[in-house]
Write a structure and sequence with these properties.
Blueprint lengths: L7 H29 L6 E3 L5 E3 L1 E17 L2 E5 L4 E5 L7 E2 L4 E6 L1 H61 L5 H58 L2 E3 L4 E5 L7 E2 L4 E6 L4 E8 L11 E5 L4 E9 L7 E8 L12 E18 L9 E8 L4 E12 L3 E6 L6 E3 L11 E5 L1
Parallel strand pairs: 1-21
Antiparallel strand pairs: 2-20, 3-12, 3-16, 4-11, 5-7, 5-10, 6-9, 7-8, 9-11, 12-15, 13-14, 13-16, 14-15, 16-19, 17-18, 17-20, 18-19, 18-21
Helix pairs in contact: 2-3
């Protein structure tokens, strides 16, 4: 008879627990071992990165920008009235004078309005002359009447004086003298009335002529306006220079305000630079600048800074202080450098690919024989277009990689080959 086996299941469970614990311990040790192994540094070709040495000394803060040469004096010519382009006597690139006709427009309504305004002016002038003749004739008649009454008054006064003497001597009755005196007084009053009427007629005539003259002046002003509009159909340059743009064609219909041409003076040019907005904050009027025209370098100074940002850049005008090199002409592509300030005895290095002013960044610094580079924290200070100040983290003579190393963000060390 077989005896039952006791404790066997408990032994089996104990063995499995011990094996599980041992497996966990082994896995843990392996994991810790793997973590303790330093990852291999990535290999980087030396010629693919930009390496620069930290220097100490004077550093010039500058900003760079590209742009074009543009005339200092530019005249944009717009259509004064609605019209149709009939002819274009001048083409872009030719020299023009102030009265040079650039193109000719036509507008029947403007022509008709000018003719009507001239006709109205001539009619108003004729009415003025006719009114003046009539008033002068009326005034002469009143003047004649005044003279006649004045003569009668004088005669009546003489007769009254004579009758006064005769009446005193008793040669005539007193009644005759009184009648003569009364007649003389009446004519004297009539004389004063006629003179007053003549004076008021003069004032009235002046007022009527002034009103008619005002109407003539109004018609003349309207005619001058219509005449200028008619003359403006022959579009002129306005200033001496070079015709730079003429963006219209024969037969094209243009509305008032449409740009017809641009005239500039090529002997007076300035540089128009586009400075990145992050660098433009320190640019001020009067700062010195240099302009590279590809044919030579000229000096200048900042004359204007645009108040707004367009497409990430700020437009800065630089006035040219010296003569321009040969070949300088409007719309020529240029490079410009504006000097912000000079820093004395500072640590500086070439500007890293991804850096900002007064920022904390990390750079790879070469160590040993220069075949390895380790990541170090660096505090940047003031920056220029190509250099940046080092506040802390590096010293003079250190060599660092300035290229974009974001591909190695997970590594604290890289090896340089080549």
């Amino acid at each position: 008879m077989d005896k039952p086996r006791t404790g066997y299941a408990e032994k089996r469970r104990l063995q499995r627990s011990l094996m599980l614990v041992a497996a966990v311990v082994v896995v843990t040790l392996i994991t810790l071992g793997i973590k303790s192994i330093e990852p291999a540094a990535p290999q980087v070709q030396r010629e693919t990165v930009w390496i620069d040495e930290v220097k100490q000394g004077p550093m010039m803060r500058e900003v760079h920008g590209n742009g074009t040469l543009v005339p200092v004096e530019v005249r944009w010519i717009s259509a004064p009235v609605e019209g149709r382009v009939e002819s274009i006597p001048a083409l872009p690139g030719v020299r023009v004078e102030a009265d040079t006709v650039l193109l000719e427009l036509s507008d029947p309504q403007v022509t008709q309005a000018a003719l009507e305004a001239e006709s109205q002016l001539r009619g108003a002038e004729a009415e003025y002359q006719n009114l003046r003749a009539q008033l002068e004739s009326q005034l002469l008649s009143q003047q004649s009447q005044v003279a006649s009454v004045d003569s009668q008054s004088q005669q009546a006064k003489l007769r009254a004086d004579a009758d006064s003497v005769l009446a005193k001597d008793g040669l005539i009755p007193d009644i005759n003298y009184k009648v003569s005196k009364l007649h003389s007084d009446e004519l004297g009053k009539q004389r004063q009335l006629e003179k007053e009427r003549y004076r008021k007629s003069q004032l009235s005539n002046q007022a009527q002529l002034a009103a008619q003259r005002a109407r003539v002046d109004q018609m003349r002003t309207m005619y001058e306006l219509r005449k200028r509009q008619l003359e403006s159909l022959r579009v002129r340059a306005g200033i001496p220079g070079v015709l730079q743009e003429l963006p219209v064609q024969v037969g094209q219909h243009v509305n008032p305000g449409t740009i017809l041409a641009r005239v500039g003076r090529p002997e007076q040019l300035k540089a128009e630079l586009r400075i990145p907005e992050v660098q433009a904050k320190d640019v001020q009027i009067g700062l010195p600048a240099t302009i590279d025209t590809r044919n030579g370098v000229v000096s200048g100074h900042v004359s204007r800074v645009a108040p707004s940002v367009q497409e990430g850049t700020v437009t800065v005008d630089v006035a040219i202080d010296g003569p321009l090199p040969k070949g300088a002409r409007p719309d020529l592509s240029i490079d410009g450098t504006i000097q912000i300030e000079r820093l004395n005895n500072v640590l500086y290095v070439g500007r890293p690919a991804t850096s900002q002013t007064n920022a904390d960044i990390q750079l790879f610094k070469l160590i040993g024989d220069g075949n390895e580079a380790v990541r170090v924290p660096v505090k940047l200070g003031r920056s220029s277009a190509t250099t940046v100040e080092i506040v802390r983290g590096l010293k003079a003579g250190d060599k660092v990689i300035l290229s974009d190393t974001s591909a190695y963000d997970g590594h604290d060390k890289i090896r340089l080959n080549g």
